[in-house]
TrEMBL record:
Main subcellular location of this protein, as a coarse class: other
Signal peptide as annotated in the record: none
Domain of life assignment: Bacteria
Entry GO CC: bacterial microcompartment
A Pfam family that the UniProt record links to this protein: BMC
Subcellular location: Bacterial microcompartment
Chain ranges passing through the membrane: none
Family named by the database record: Belongs to the bacterial microcompartments protein family.
InterPro entries: BMC_dom (IPR000249), BMC_shell (IPR050575), CcmK-like_sf (IPR037233), CcmK/CsoS1_BMC (IPR044872), Micro_shell_prot_PduT (IPR011238)
Protein name as catalogued: BMC domain protein
Amino acid sequence: MSKAIGMIEFKTTATGITAADAMVKTSEVEIVEAQTVCPGKYIAIITGDLSAVKAAVDAAVTTYEDKCIDSFVLGNPHESLFPAMYGTTQIEGISALGILETYDAASIIEAADQAAKTAIVDVIELRIAKGMCGKSYMLLTGEVSAVEASIEKAKQLVASKGMYLDSSVIAHPDQRMIDSIL
């Protein structure tokens, strides 16, 4: 039994809530977050054993496929994802800053997991479609080469789904810039 997280992203709140309800009725999973995000989409993030999360996400997506924007299941998600989602990551010094932006909510979490597993980086923040018209972004830090490798790998993943918007790596960002975004 391995730990996993899964997410659904739907075009409408009504379908999203109904699909989230179906997920928890399908399998023994816990809702981590379920809410309306910009622009009136609905996301639900669940956790549990890999097989339970997969069954729950599959049931929701299959039943409401016509209104599903995106979904994923991640087995053994990187431990930095949840602090980054909730803005509780503690960072001491930023050598390089990586930024990746997507058109949707689900792919940014997958991208962050991929980036964190690619090189030694710290995921600072995951902004999931809140106040961004449905777009999402992540911030990460580490040594310049590690950040570049992580952003490139995450970019490839998101681009393969057609959800890549933009990315950047800033070597040695100015402290005033860091203070303004953190």
